[in-house]
Amino acid sequence: MATNDQKILIVDDESDILELLKYNLSKEGYEVRTATDGIKGVEIAKSFNPDLIILDIMMPKQDGVETCRQIREIPELSNVFVIFLTARSEEYSEVAAFEMGADDYITKPIKPRALMSRLNALFRRESKKKQESSKITIEDLEIDRTSYTVKLGDEKINLPKKEFELLYFLAQNPGKVYSRDELLQNIWGTDVYVLARTVDVHIRKVREKIGNSYISTVKGVGYKFEVN
User: Fold this and answer.
1) Which of 33, 157, 204, 223 has the most CB atoms around its CB within 10 Å?
2) What average pLDDT score do residues 51-79 get?
3) Residue of 55, 59, 56, 61 lying closest to 80 (CA atoms)
4) Domain 133-225: which topology?
5) How far apart are CA 183 and CA 166, in angstroms?
6) What is the CATH number of domain 7-129?
């Protein structure tokens, strides 16, 4: 059996899905907990503090999108990986999931080996980023990749993982313009299909938290980080 330090929470109301995923993930060495609805999932996540959460959308009591929103509002869980695994294949469901901060969106039926591959790829990318961690300070904005923290003056700003990575990536090369496709490839990766409008949504959310002066829109091209 493989051994991993990572912990995974699965939230799905189908018992056969929970059993299948728990079996395969445990075999890979992950520590696994399960929940059958969104409310219970949030409750377990607070105490379990998982590294990754697999969420269904259609669940009793509370759906997966609302569950993801609540999870992202908990500071200790704002950077946890969230993968939606659902039978919903409509574009609006996928958009809603990514707008709530999803890292990936996978439609059922489940292919366990393919799922394991995507999980391992997520964790590998995260490990590589941590090795490259550094701190960026521009004017009164401080972005610390090691601790995933952002400070604006004396104020600490809480950013979910994808919003943080988007800000950090742009700040690494101030003045350079990146297209939406380039941002999608560098932040979400080439193995995850994400709509271009997802970038716009995340940019808007970052601006709401740090102000409009740091990231500018280059019409018809993309975005860049501004330095006065």
Assistant:
1) 223
2) 90
3) 55
4) Arc Repressor Mutant, subunit A (1.10.10)
5) 7
6) 3.40.50.2300
Distance CA 101, CA 82 (A): 8
Do 8 and 50 meet the contact criterion of CB atoms below 8 Å apart? yes
By C-alpha distance, which of 207, 186, 203, 206 is closest to 129? 186
pLDDT tens column, 82-116: 999 888 878 888 888 888 888 888 888 888 888 88
Exposed/middle/buried for residue 113 (C-beta within 10 Å: 0-12, 13-18, 19+): exposed
What pLDDT score does 91 carry? Answer: 80
- What type of residue is 158? N
What pLDDT digit, counting tens, does each position of 167-214 carry?
Answer: 999 998 899 999 999 998 888 876 666 777 888 989 999 999 999 899
Cβ contacts of residue 12 below 8 Å, gap of 6+?
Answer: 18, 21, 34, 36, 54, 55, 56, 59, 85
| Helix, strand, or coil (residue 125) | helix
Instruction: Give the pLDDT of residue 192.
Output: 66
Domain range annotation of the chain: 7-129, 133-225
Q: Decide if 20 contacts 48 (C-beta within 8 A).
A: no
